[in-house]
Amino acid sequence: MGRKDPRVDAYIDRARDFARPVLRHLRAVVHGACPEVEETIKWGFPHFQYRGVLCSVAAFKAHCAFGFWKGKLVLGDAASGAAMGQFGRITAVSDLPSRAALAKLVRRAAALNEQGVAAPRSRTGASRPAPPVPPVLAAALRKDRKAAATFEGFSPSARRDYVEWITGAKGQETRRRRLATAVEWMAEGRPRNWKYAR
């Protein structure tokens, strides 16, 4: 018998009006297709587990996301890369495949977990080099020794997290705010995603 988690109920209740029907629909489909599924919250959003992680849902300001842990094995090349998960930016139940089609995918994902099939690794094994430091970040780091020392001690991927976050800002004001926050966090010795570290 599966298990529902009251934290998932709370997550759905806190979601925006458009998201609640989507989240409830996906939850019902997953439980219907895999009656032994158990719910939990990982990384701040609902996950469904059956002999390992099966799939997850998330709600954002303007869309929802749904994805399978072993998405490439479940969907092949049909997965959308437009958002987190494999179904793009979901704003209504009508953006999803039919209930029957989704249930079939959930059963396929459950079968993979039953068989002990591991998720394919997306990395080639070789790490990418550290990205070039944008001039605005280099100038800010020259003014703060602690932040500069932390940045220099980071792995290439940790540096990339900060560089891409700052350079990915659309507006000048957002870029300025992110830069100030980045320097503050680095001066405290924190990586970009420190809030999610365990």
Average pLDDT over all residues: 87
What helical percentage do the residues reach?
A: 40-55%
The major beta sheet can be summarized as: 4 strands, antiparallel
Q: How far do the termini sit from each other? A: 30 Å
CATH class value of the largest domain:
Alpha Beta
How many domains make up the 3D coordinates? Answer: 2
Q: Helical segment tally?
A: 8
The computed structural class is alpha+beta
Evaluate the radius of gyration: 20 Å
Strand order of the largest sheet: 1-2-3-4
Secondary structure: number of strands? 4
Order of helices and strands: HHEEEEHHHHHH
The CATH architecture of the largest domain comes to Alpha-Beta Complex
Low-confidence stretches: none
Name a few traits of the molecule.
single chain; alpha+beta; Aspartate Aminotransferase, domain 1; 2 domains; 4-stranded antiparallel sheet; 8 helices; 11% strand; elongated
Write a brief caption for the model:
The protein has 198 residues and is α+β, with helices and mostly antiparallel strands. Helix content is 45%, strand content 11%.
Q: What's the layout of helices and strands?
A:
Layout: H1 6-14, H2 19-33, E1 38-42, E2 45-49, E3 53-59, E4 64-68, H3 71-75, H4 99-114, H5 135-142, H6 145-153, H7 156-167, H8 172-187
Explained architecture:
The structure is a single chain. This protein has a 4-stranded antiparallel beta sheet. The model has no long low-confidence stretch (mean pLDDT 87). A hairpin with a 3-residue loop joins strand 2 and strand 3. With 198 residues, the chain is an alpha+beta fold. The longest helix has 16 residues. It starts with 5 loop residues before the first helix and ends in an 11-residue tail after the last helix. Helix 2 crosses helix 4, helix 6 crosses helix 8 and helix 7 packs antiparallel against helix 8. The protein contains 8 helices and 4 strands, in the order H-H-E-E-E-E-H-H-H-H-H-H. It has 2 domains: 109 residues, Aspartate Aminotransferase, domain 1; 62 residues, no CATH class.
